[in-house]
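To whoever is on call:

I kicked off a structure prediction for a single chain this morning and the downstream step that reads the tokens threw a length-mismatch warning. I double-checked the sequence; it's 117 residues and nothing unusual in it as far as I can see. Pasting both halves so you can look.
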Amino acid sequence: QVQFVESGGGLVQPGGSLRLSCAAASGRAFSIYAMAWFRQAPGQQRELVARISSSGSTNYADSVKGRFTISRDNAKNTVYLQMNSLKPEDTAVYYCNLPLATPSSAWGQGTQVTVSS
């Protein structure tokens, strides 16, 4: 089972930027997996915000399109989420996982992103 360790969150003012990282520990080739970033705000369900295929194709939720960029470095078994023009509604715990992960899948501890003045 793949393990993920998210980092890079923090407190940022509206309009600011953050770059999240997700290191994957896997006994298999990381490069063959599509990866995704999810987020969960208090009292809300976890939602997928960005996805990147094994070949590098990307998809984004409408709420983050044009502001967030997902990328990957297969040599480092790492996926990134560059977040620009952050809004208070982006406040959530951010997680990475396989795109088809379910609540019963193994999840990392996530990284807290708080957007507030």
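Update from on-call: the warning came from a stale cache, not from the record. Cleared it. Sanity check on the structure: The longest strand covers residues 18-25.
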